[in-house]
Amino acid sequence: MKKIITTTKAPAPIGPYNQAVLSGNTLYTSGQIALDPNTGELILDSIEIETKQVMENMKEVLAAAKMTFENVVKTSIFISDMNQFADINKVYGSYFNEETAPARETVEVANLPKFVNVEISMIAIK
């Protein structure tokens, strides 16, 4: 059985999907981009600020499922420019304990929704 997870503290979906789906003890999140959930505006001042907004959005989705970054077992990071990887990784890494950090892949792609620079999705387990 699946339970739909939603929160107004993260951007609302802009298509036929949900912020996250809980199946048993496993949470599957949709990708988050740097949309301000209050204004709907993109936060693109710098790659560090953009990544921080993505991670803050994800933090709220996890919280809506009564989870934290400690529950995350897998992340997928999609970026438009691999040259920005180090800056993205620095911000991303600040949300995890390095000893218990999740598995991850980082993939450079041609384009992302709304032509942002980074999108991150996660899988977490209670």
UniProtKB/TrEMBL annotation:
This is Rid family detoxifying hydrolase. It comes from Polaribacter ponticola. Signal peptide: none annotated. Keywords: Hydrolase. CDD domains: YjgF_YER057c_UK114_family. SUPFAM superfamilies: YjgF-like. It comes from the Bacteria. It holds the Pfam family Ribonuc_L-PSP. Belongs to the RutC family. One of its GO terms (molecular function) is hydrolase activity.
